[in-house]
UniProtKB/TrEMBL annotation, chains A, B, C, D:
GO terms for molecular function: glycine oxidase activity. This is glycine oxidase. The chain crosses the membrane at residues 7-24. It is an enzyme of class 1 (oxidoreductase). Pathway: Cofactor biosynthesis; thiamine diphosphate biosynthesis. InterPro entries: FAD-dep_OxRdtase, FAD/NAD-bd_sf, Gly_oxidase_ThiO. The keyword Transmembrane helix applies. The gene is thiO. Its EC number is 1.4.3.19. It catalyses: glycine + O2 + H2O = glyoxylate + H2O2 + NH4(+). Keywords: Membrane, Oxidoreductase, Thiamine biosynthesis, Transmembrane, Transmembrane helix.
Length: 370, 370, 370, 370
């Protein structure tokens, strides 16, 4: 293990891997430390929807432009990453049909429908597009740009591309502590110590211990998401169906993902029978034919929740060489590119939109309270 | 491949493997031909309950004594097979609590309760024995003798024990046809021909093609059973719960099986979302805490159904050197030893209770009709 | 099950699925019958190299133009199939480096090197392209057009595209026999009978029983291929390495395939320790760093071998409504499109190059002998 | 989560689970905290040999009596644990044949052969017992008492038995730090804080961070072990074969384990191709027929190595309420009962053989040096 790096990224999920990619592109000597294997935890349990629109409900002022920047980045990344790494990210067009069953549902879609990239479809148009959708739906917001990718492939593609550009990836290297020493940081890992000029904390819901260690007062809380990977015996869906936080995503590998539950403060990564029951009910509401889908496997992961639903992306309040990038909740895959770019810009001291800096800074709660 | 055998058993599921064991014990030179791997189909999808009592409802005259003989055989087999093969069959004591929720349920249990081996327990006694049982249960028939085994281990143990006693097992040997030649049978397989003096058809629900080929007019129809293999995070059940054809079986490997659906005329071995939903509902009815169980995997298999629910075990009506042993429906694991003994006795021309011969003969429908 | 089809394809591996696709495109009402699940046997054990050049050694006159036609078809199919089915076939550029270690190796490459699409690279150029290749290699034939796909995805994409165009796919429908009746064929399956005007036998190495049934004198013999699916902890290879019938194929899903053994007359689909040992040796010869690759899983499948190494594609000698498409040996994935097109052209009575008809007809051995 | 316990065991592998069992039996209110799932790491990669004799070479004075005590405990535990938990530990008789190929091998076996429980067998007697053993073996030390168990079942059985006796098991609870407060310990976990009177560190090779935190100067170093789980198509071995640190263990579930490599300072849990190659070579040396075994899956785990090869079992030198039980290297399964008993006796302040206290104390190196 090379003993000195310019940047040490702690955590090799989708966020840490994307950061490493953007840093390596700038020839910043970067190392990623993951306690297990790249992308094996929360990342691998994601559905991979790039739902810039569908996830922005209630936050079109800040979240949406940030998410949209990230979503757009993927259009170029899909070829760029493949070229670098040889690993295809499974980018799949089609977009999302966000279904409405009640007038209240329709009302909730209104802020979405004012976007020029979103279109209202009446029930018959929905069924024309996807004939298995429940006839009970009154209609849907159709969002062609909310495409999807395969999450663990995307993570692997970021990581291998970063390696191809010179970054080092250390798996099975849990980080115990970080120590300031003569202006640099000593990072203590199970396999020895390394030194770095910048440290990026990208450990998702497992960041609490490092937060405490770095005297950051916020904490992340897990919101477990359980999903079903299923198969159909014939072509069934071309678009993702979405309703009431749940979805059915057709993937480019022939499977569909039905997700996801929201189990608060559960640190396990098992899938319970009541979770499965909930998901099957939801799927049948969207598409009655879901009853005949066959199960392939189940997945579960811990979304890193924050007090206000927005991620922490920014500098440590007391030390600008320590950066934080975690708390992406339901949107880690979507926000990875914009997060990687933002961390890169902090390190290179480039301009970053001030509203993003404010919205995502780790001490925003205290600032508001003060 | 040795070209001549005294007995050729077609099918290496639990029935064919048990038959091979009993023949090999008598030093009959036996070969088993399976189209795939030993026990990989219906056998591997069974729960392994030895429900001599619980499955006899409506047939205490014939089915019960036969099933009881078989159940009792396992008590000795568990050591005998382990000694021969080194493979443990996972015999687990505890027995079954057959729950009653309504007066009708209770009435249905009456024929069972007259058995000296069955005891009625009031609700509070049931909950004393198993504290997670639903308080809605009025009580239960307690059947200590209806223990369980691990089905694929039992099948493997029969097969390896048969080998240890001299039998040959040929996996990946689908049998295409059987031809009579000079008093013996030529068995045509994908890998060449062999000759045998006796032929035993033990191919479960896949027997239709051989039945047609052997001019037997009966047909087997599949009743697909889907089950869930689940885990609990603490010790939960010591006894199998049973209600309304469904059950929760605690196994000696730490898992529990929730089974099983009954899907008629479905030849697939996939598990559908509606099947899963049904099983979770049933499990919660028996034990509300089932909602928190976590899923390990799902299994499905095709039970071989017959016109009257009883297996076909006996000689071909026209040719006593051709024997049939299939159609065991929900009870293949339970009935394997008694079936193996009965086929052995047909070949050795030993006495067999005449009511069993009559009840299980393959041409019984025509005889009744004639 | 609809009872009448224009064409019944027996076998839903890569060959049967491709045929169904080409027939469905012509609006021929087609049904595929598979004994298990689509693509689960030999197809799923293939590496997916489209080795038109690398596999043509010794047969540039007939095999090569046929294989090359098929290989070229994939360039368009990759988008066409994705559009129809939503399933990506995992097309991966890069091509093959066919390595030479001895003068004899070099000599064997000569017929390949006269092709304008193949280029000789000296050792240093090989290592410049792929720095982990063994320095013992004298050089390599570089074949950019011999790209690769993901076999089971390709099969699924063909099958789902065929369905999207109107074809029916029946899984778990083993076919027992075929009967001529009033000009049409009755196909007897485990789940009932159907009628068809044309029958296509595409059951790979399992065709022997149907061949016998259809009074075809040829037989297919299995050549088992075992492979390892492995992972590297960093980007390792961009091109497939090939030497002495073995290869290391980097896939677009981040894994590499090391294949394959050639075990004659073995009908099992297990992977033996000696097979694994052989593959690791071979891989290390091509790339010493292979020692540090980590195993993901193993696969095995039965290549359908023919007496002369060429497939059987053509009409039954006695009955032009019965077509045969099997025996593709090491090249099922590569040859699927051209085979599908050829079967389509037989049915539509379109022109087919006569040298292909002669080279692949099922009774070619007798014709030569006569 | 109950906030106060008498004893907190950190780590739920075989060692922590066994300790919890012995404490719970004494009605000590015990909680186990595991960062992931019970027994999923090193424990699940063990072969399960209870090699009290075969592993004592070079340490018959201290290690042997301790290991022998532990081995003997299993004879009773197998029924006791099953009774409590319903989970069978897979105890398998047969014993070990420790093979000798050279005179040097024979010489190395001498200290073993003076034990009354070990017997020398000449080559022909070995082959009489196990006919597939290589005829190159000069003979073997036969150790009937060195039986085996299934490691993860044993761990689960200890943990569930502990629960049945009142212990609490918390999975997915990584422990960050331990703090002394008013005579008790506050244990900080990802899911909150708990208080305990006694703390037991049983985190195997992952103990380094806690060791540092608790100001213990020793460190554990990983020695990765890779193994193959294989199957035979007929009964093959009744006894474990052992030679030169490698072994073939027949299990009571029908599989065999070929193990294990010794890769120093490798923290990954993947299985490399060179590891596999090494194991196959070793297996063939012991039993040429191993070449035909078929692979089921591979496993790997990190043995916790110590400076002198003996475990750390004892009190913290500065604080007798902190106990350590880690560093069991190759012998975690074997030593779990004796370790659990010893930790119990420390807490209950019962007598413990002083030579065990001295041999296993965590500060033994400094004492010697001092």
């Amino acid at each position: 293990m090379n003993k000195q790096y310019e940047a040490a990224v702690i955590g090799g999920g989708i966020i840490g891997s994307a950061i490493a990619y953007y840093l390596a592109k700038e020839k910043i000597d970067t190392a990623v430390f993951d306690g297990g294997r790249i992308g094996e935890k929360t990342t691998s349990a994601a559905a991979g929807m790039l739902g810039a629109h569908s996830e922005s409900i209630g936050d079109f002022s800040v979240f949406f432009p940030f998410a949209r920047t990230s979503q757009r980045a993927y259009a170029a990344l899909k070829d760029e990453l493949y070229e670098q790494s040889g690993v295809d990210i499974g980018y799949k067009k089609g977009g999302i049909l966000k279904l409405a069953y009640t007038e209240e549902d329709q009302k909730n879609l209104e802020p979405l429908l004012v976007q020029p990239t979103v279109q209202w479809l009446e029930s018959e148009d929905v069924i024309y597009m996807e004939k298995e959708v429940s006839p009970d739906a009154l209609g849907a917001a159709y969002i062609p740009d909310d495409v999807s990718v395969l999450p663990n492939r995307t993570c692997e593609s970021f990581a291998k591309s970063a390696q191809a550009l010179g970054a080092s990836i250390f798996e099975n290297h849990p980080v115990y502590s970080i120590e300031k020493q003569a202006g640099n940081y000593i990072i203590h890992t199970a396999q020895g110590d390394v030194e770095a000029k910048y440290v990026v904390v990208a450990t998702g819901v497992l960041s609490n211990s490092l937060f405490k260690h770095l005297v950051l007062s916020e904490r992340l809380s897990p919101v477990k998401g359980e999903s079903l990977i299923v198969r159909a015996d014939k072509p069934l869906l071309k678009h993702t169906l979405f309703h009431d936080s749940c979805y059915i995503v057709p993937r480019n590998n022939g499977t569909l993902v039905i997700g996801a539950t929201m189990v608060e403060n559960d640190w396990s990564d098992t899938v319970s029978l009541e979770g499965i029951q909930f998901l099957i009910e939801k799927a049948k509401t969207m598409m009655p034919a879901a009853a005949q889908l066959t199960i392939d496997r189940v997945i579960a992961g811990l979304r890193p929740g924050t007090f206000d639903g927005r991620p922490f992306i920014g500098r440590h309040p007391e030390d600008k060489h320590i950066l934080v990038a975690c708390g992406h909740y339901r949107n880690g895959i979507l926000l990875a590119p914009a997060t990687g770019q933002m961390i890169r810009d902090f390190i290179l001291e480039k301009d970053i939109p001030s509203e993003w800096i404010e919205a995502f800074r780790v001490d925003r709660r205290q600032l508001v309270m003060a």
